[in-house]
Amino acid sequence: MTYTQSVVFDLPAIQGALQEDNLDGWLLCDFHGSNPIARAVVQVDSAAKLTTRRWYYLIPATGEPRSLMHAIEPTSLAHLPGTHTLYVGHQQLQDGLLKLLTGCGILAMEYSPNGAIPYISRVDAGTVDAIRAFGVTIVSSGDLVQRFAAVWDEAALATHRAASYRLYQIKDRAFALIRERLEAATPVSEFEVQQTMVGWFRDAELVTDSPPVVASQQSSGNPHYLPTAQEHRRIEHGNIVLLDLWGKLDTRGAVFADITWMGYAGAGVPSEYSAVFDLARAARDAAIARVKDASATGEDLRGWQVDRAAREVIDAAGMGQFFIHRTGHSLGESVHGNGVHMDDHETHDDRRLLPGTGLTIEPGIYQDTFGVRTEINMYVSHHDAQVTGPVQTEIVPLMSKR
Asked: For a disulfide at 342, which of 288, 328, 380, 396, Cβ 3.0-4.6 Å?
């Protein structure tokens, strides 16, 4: 079965959103692939068309859209509604922009004030300067991007659930592999487990942008540790083991799932580890509850508020200095999607959690000797929010009591 892309160009819906937000329009532009968000919204397929010159597409709050394209690429936006103008030299470009922007006072662009949200900051500073020179005020398109490039349809949600199910199976197989080796007293390394998982991804028809994280003991204290053939650890009795794996179906329009689980290379999990995991779990559950409550009541919840809910739990326990990343991120056709991130730490993400979007909740606590993280995925609908897979309640012992 194939699925359509999750980005749908719906002109009436976009114009309705612009009117709700009191914007004169949304100016989408790109140069040689510099703005993947704009390309996704207008559905420019770089594999089908050469787009090596600057193009601009203005969606006004009312009226007909209009575009400006280079004359050597006159069909770049021909599939879109509206009037299309061509330019050749730089003076024609300036004249074309003046005409394109006539009547516009406030426009949304892929811009984030002070670079606060890098995922949205896709328009270069020079282009921002050029547009402002025409007397235009530029605001962030962050919430527009969520509505039209981050919201899942039912088919996309189905791909997420399918990928999630397969990831949990691979996680279980990885823990089983470690268990078998430990009980047979046969050496096993982080890298071997990782590479075996890579093979299972192929078997499950999952694609990803990176091999999974397999981190034992000190390695688990590095949130983005990846074992390699040159640098990895042997997984030994008494080690804590972190598995972080993400992937999506190998089909058009599929969206990611992304999970993290903790294991212990022994029979009884020491309190040193379980106490820290319990704290991360409590933070995770506080963030989940915040999202669920807001969705049920219709509260206008922002990404930074979800992060705050988790972070306050860890801060209250005196461990805040060891929680060094945001609480979660958007999920989409890229593992870090175009939607709101659960972040009041690395950035202050004030975008709204919108119905039809997916996200992770993944607080972690990282020390020199070991680290823990617990990660689940959520889907926010119009009246509720749900966790889309199993939820870890305790560290998994990887050996049986004798």
From this structure: 328
Q: In terms of DSSP H, where are the helices of 298-349?
A: 303-316
Radius of gyration of the chain (CA): 24
State how far the Cα of 82 lies from the Cα of 94, in Å rounded to an integer. Answer: 20
Mean pLDDT taken over the chain: 94
If asked whether residues 143 and 158 sit together in one domain, one would say no
14, 46 Cβ separation under 8 angstroms? no
CA 177/CA 193 separation, integer angstroms? 8
Model confidence at 23: pLDDT above 90: yes
Nearest-5° Cα angle at 43, 42 to 47 = 140
Range of the domain at 63: 11-149
Q: Is residue 72 included in any domain, yes or no?
A: yes
Neighbour-count burial of 329, counting CB atoms closer than 10 A to its CB (0-12 exposed, 13-18 middle, 19+ buried): buried
Kindly report the pTM of this predicted structure: 0.90
pLDDT in tens, 74-114: 999 999 999 999 999 999 999 999 999 999 999 999 999 98
Question: How many structural domains are present in the chain?
Answer: 2
